[in-house]
Amino acid sequence: MEERKPLTDRQQQVLNALVDFHNMHGYPPTYTELAALIGVASGNAAFEHLRALVKKGYITIASGTARGIKVIGVNDTLALDEAEQVIRALLAGEDSSADLAQEWLKRRGSAA
């Protein structure tokens, strides 16, 4: 694997915001959400920061999708394992499944 170029402090802040948002919500932010997170005026301004991260090999962006930002090298296995555990409990009708689902949602900031 080719070594990635180092990030500026600001680029590291943007990358951290992407990872933190994904860890909290389970999906990446939109450009507008990212703009609010990093304190810029618009989604277009946020996109300029993202272009630099793409160029340096830290993220990819899927075109045509609102949440198409993918941080390269971030392990999503734990989040998927947790989601699978919640879904299996709900499908099996386990007594604690509703509590498990509520806790999973709460950890992502979206409890019902």
Summary of the model, kept short:
By secondary structure, the protein is mainly alpha-helical. The protein is 58% helix and 5% strand.
Structural features, described:
With 112 residues, this protein is mainly α. Helix content is 58%, strand content 5%. It contains 5 helices and 2 strands. The chain has helices spanning 9-25, 31-38, 43-55, 77-92, 97-107; strands at 59-61, 69-71. The protein has a two-stranded antiparallel sheet. The mean pLDDT is 85.
Low-confidence stretches: none
Number of strands: 2
The string of secondary-structure elements, in order, is HHHEEHH
Number of helices in the DSSP assignment: 5
Sheet with the most strands? 2 strands, antiparallel
Cα-to-Cα separation, first versus last residue: 43 Å
**Estimated radius of gyration:** 17 Å
